[in-house]
Amino acid sequence: MSWLDDVDVDEEPEFDETDVRVRPNPKANRPRTKRRPAHEDATVARVLGVDRGRYTVLVDEGLPGEREVSAVRARELRKTPIVTGDRARVVGDTSGHEGTLGRIVGIEERTSLLRRSADDTDQVERVIVANADQMLVVVAAADPEPRPRLVDRYLVAALDAGIRPLMVVTKTDLADPDPFLEHFAGLEELRVFRSSRDVAPLAEIGEALVGHTTVFVGHSGVGKSTLVNALVPSAGRATGHVNEVTGRGRHTSSSTVSLRYEGEGGSGWVIDTPGVRSFGLGHVDPENILRAYPDLLAVAEDCPRGCTHLPDAPDCALNEAVTAGSLPAGRVDSLQRLLATFKDKQDW
């Protein structure tokens, strides 16, 4: 008699989960964690530019083995803006050989951040440049006509970011820039360079660039790219012309790039940006606007507490100074236009 004699062939066997064999899957069974590698071997590199998700970074800056490397951002940085001028931490293949690719795994702390918004009502900021300590505003005396209120916006954004402003007025052979510059007469710390077809103060401008990271901004058609090419001959930035019908310049520079300036007194970095026709300040704290007008700020100290400095503000020292002729009406009007834009902001 065998054990088969005790088995009922018509009886269905019973199974439970202990009878199921599970094939091990180490990845699926591994507990999730938010911990990321420390990347202690990462190399700090300067971000020179970005093109369709690929970043050009400068590794070993200033050393004999200095080289440009192509890199992508790590997945954990997908919500972190990486812009020209950033100091990025890079891992992977940083040899710079053709076909190699590094990976940006972190951004060093920024010393400054230049931003703009689509318009004054849009508080979503667009980061333009990181770690710049100077802004060079390029404006034409004519063709196209200078726009003092646009320049005011540049200055507000620069001072809000803690960046020192400079200005170059081009095409001074076409028109006298003095009436335009009178608008900024109260900005004693604003250094202005004048440039024409016959006289371009490249040596003086270059001297101001040495030892600094300077972001160039300006309206389309003012000659910004032409100036960049003169200062950095290897830049090769596209230049355009002004439309005779509309009086507007054509956008020629489509990307922001960082270029090394080499002068007799040393080197610096020039960051060229695309020409713009508007510069939103929706991200700026309204309290910082008046600080961009130091000459008006001194007068505003005599205003009553809580003064809005708008045209209808009672006993406003600024309005009284305009009436008395001690302040230029155009400059006060420019300030008041900006303040009116931010009047209804939540934190005003």
Characterization of the model:
The chain has 348 residues and is of the alpha/beta class. The chain folds into 3 domains: 43-107, Nucleic acid-binding proteins (OB fold (Dihydrolipoamide Acetyltransferase, E2P)), CATH 2.40.50; 113-272, 3-Layer(aba) Sandwich (Rossmann fold), CATH 3.40.50; 286-341, Ribonucleotide Reductase Protein R1, domain 1, CATH 1.10.40. The chain contains 8 helices and 13 strands. It has a 6-stranded mixed sheet with strand order 10-9-8-11-13-12. Strand 9 (164-170), helix 3 (178-181) and strand 10 form a beta-alpha-beta unit. It is globular, with a radius of gyration of 29 Å.
Summarize the SSE layout with pairings:
Elements: H1 26-29, E1 43-51, E2 54-59, E3 67-73, E4 87-92, E5 102-107, E6 113-116, E7 126-130, E8 134-140, H2 148-160, E9 164-170, H3 178-181, E10 191-194, H4 202-209, E11 213-218, H5 224-231, E12 257-263, E13 266-272, H6 294-300, H7 317-324, H8 329-341
Parallel strand pairs: 3-5, 8-9, 8-11, 9-10, 11-13
Antiparallel strand pairs: 1-2, 1-4, 2-3, 4-5, 6-7, 12-13
